[in-house]
Amino acid sequence: MESSLIKHIIKAILAYDTPVLIIENNDGFLFRADVIKEFEANNINVSIGNKLSQRVDFELRDPIETLILVNLEKRQYLEDIEFLAIHMKLSLNQFITDYHIPSIKDLPLDKLDLIFKKKQLLSLTKYQTLKVI
């Protein structure tokens, strides 16, 4: 697997080997359209929304795909789906350390790949992170 940030995240998600994941994503990275597009290209369907959209996505899911449920309300999931799903937390700082995450979380994926590959010896402040960018 190539050493891109998104590939590492996909590998971490698929390691759970479950058809349904409920992911708490406090930094909002999984809500990005480009991230969702990359996930879909790797058989991961991302469902963002209310309980009705969760139900529709759950019932219509492809058995060979992994379904990820995320929403802004946090913990607003249907009981039967929540019972079957595995819960996990995922944030950008699990994969990119030593940078100021709020400063980089909205960068294009190619820029995030460069930061992901460039390890720092010390944690950077917001100013230092912006200087690197």
Q: Which sequence of strands runs across the widest sheet?
A: 2-3-1-4
Q: Which descriptor suits the 3D outline? A: elongated
Beta-strand proportion: 5-15%
Instruction: Give the H and E element order.
Output: HEHEHEHEHHH
The secondary structure category is alpha/beta
Query: Roughly how many Å is the radius of gyration?
Result: 16 Å
What's the number of helices? 7
> What's the helical proportion of residues?
25-40%
Whole-number average pLDDT? Answer: 88
Low-confidence stretches: none
The main β sheet shows up as: 4 strands, parallel
Tell how many strands the DSSP assignment holds.
Answer: 4
Explain what the structure shows.
The chain is of the alpha/beta class. 40% of the residues lie in helices and 14% in strands. It contains seven helices and four strands; from the N terminus they run αβαβαβαβααα. It has helices spanning 5-14, 33-40, 51-59, 79-84, 101-104, 109-117, 126-132, and strands spanning 20-24, 44-48, 66-70, 86-89. A four-stranded parallel beta sheet has the order 2-3-1-4, sandwiched between helices. The protein is elongated.
Summarize the helices and strands and which ones pair or pack:
Blueprint: H1 5-14, E1 20-24, H2 33-40, E2 44-48, H3 51-59, E3 66-70, H4 79-84, E4 86-89, H5 101-104, H6 109-117, H7 126-132
Parallel strand pairs: 1-3, 1-4, 2-3
Summed up:
The chain has seven helices and four strands. With 133 residues, the chain is α/β, with parallel strands linked by helices.
